């Protein structure tokens, strides 16, 4: 499928699926998306309007819906927002090179000590984003951590991003940042054996394993709009079923297109 559509699908489920470590053989997806035409000619793809993703034993659903007075977003079939307080990962990475550990052999110092974070291996220059809204409380060199950014998200959570090659333009200490905003770029500054991001999270001042945390969702569809939302979901599911049938019979598709694939 189109590269941008693939990343759009990843972004929709970014709060629930880490596409670099959570995928399993046999996972599959199906989604419905718009196409834009001008004077009868296709000029590009639009947004994904509905998506299913079977990940391991879990079935994830997403439907695009606009609650009056809010920014349009994606919800599951019960009207719960897919958006969470924090993203599952702060970058698109190659692999996890080192996990959360109370006793790890440091690759350079060759001594055992705690590693209260996740190392994401990725090429130098890979964009790093903040996993949640917050304020920059540190931007600078921090001993072996190299170029580092720390963000306070509220009075309970802080996250840090280490070994950066450089910072995002105009980012300053004290600046407010939004979830998904690029704050820096992967590097190997400080004590690092290769380019990676060392990502750490604290809750109430103590380190926690971010891969095992479960965070609350954003606001659901209000009850007064649930009937309209359910009608929207039923319409999208009907479109999806119809277009998948068309795809299987190799008929030309109209303005909406269904994609389906096994991993």
Please characterize this protein's 3D structure.
This protein is mostly beta strands and 263 residues long. The chain contains two helices and 17 strands. Strands 5, 8, 9, 10, 11, 12, 13, 14, 15 and 16 form a ten-stranded antiparallel beta sheet that branches. It has a five-stranded antiparallel beta sheet with strand order 4-3-2-1-17. Strands 6-7 form a two-stranded antiparallel sheet. A hairpin with a 5-residue loop joins strand 10 (134-141) and strand 11. The longest helix is centred in the last third of the chain and has 23 residues, at 226-248. The two termini are 13 Å apart.
- What is the helix content? 10-25%
What number is the mean pLDDT? 86
Report the biggest beta sheet as strand number plus sense, adding barrel if it closes.
10 strands, antiparallel
Helix/strand-derived category reads mainly beta
Number of DSSP E strands: 17
Radius of gyration: 21 Å
State the end-to-end distance: 13 Å
Beta percentage is 35-45%
Order of helices and strands: HEEEEEEEEEEEEEEEEHE
Q: How many individual helices?
A: 2
Low-confidence sequence ranges: none
Q: Based on CA inertia axes, which overall geometry fits?
A: globular
Could you name the key traits of this structure?
263 residues; mainly beta; 10-stranded antiparallel sheet; 5-stranded antiparallel sheet; 2 helices; globular
């Amino acid at each position: 499928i189109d590269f941008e559509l693939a990343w759009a699908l990843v972004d929709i489920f970014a709060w629930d699926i880490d596409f670099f470590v959570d995928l399993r053989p046999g996972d599959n997806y199906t989604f419905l998306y718009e196409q834009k035409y001008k004077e009868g000619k296709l000029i590009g793809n639009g947004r994904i309007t509905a998506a299913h993703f079977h990940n391991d034993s879990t079935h994830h659903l997403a439907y695009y819906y606009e609650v009056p007075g809010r920014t349009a977003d994606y919800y599951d079939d019960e009207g719960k927002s897919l958006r969470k307080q924090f993203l599952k990962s702060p970058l698109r990475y190659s692999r996890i090179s080192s996990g959360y550990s109370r006793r790890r052999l440091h690759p350079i110092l060759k001594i055992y000590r705690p590693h209260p974070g996740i190392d994401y291996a990725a090429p130098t220059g890979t964009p790093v984003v903040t996993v949640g809204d917050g304020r920059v409380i540190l931007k600078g060199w921090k001993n072996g951590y190299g170029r580092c950014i720390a963000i306070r998200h509220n009075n309970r959570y802080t996250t840090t991003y280490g070994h950066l090659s450089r910072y995002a333009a105009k980012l300053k200490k004290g600046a407010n940042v939004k979830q998904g905003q690029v704050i820096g770029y992967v590097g190997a500054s400080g004590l690092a054996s290769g380019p990676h991001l060392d990502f750490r999270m604290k809750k109430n001042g103590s380190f926690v394993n971010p891969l095992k945390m479960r965070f609350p969702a954003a606001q659901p569809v209000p009850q007064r709009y649930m009937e309209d939302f359910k009608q929207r979901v039923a319409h999208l599911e009907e479109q999806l079923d119809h277009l998948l049938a068309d795809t299987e019979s190799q008929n030309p598709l109209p303005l909406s297109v269904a994609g389906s694939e096994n991993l």
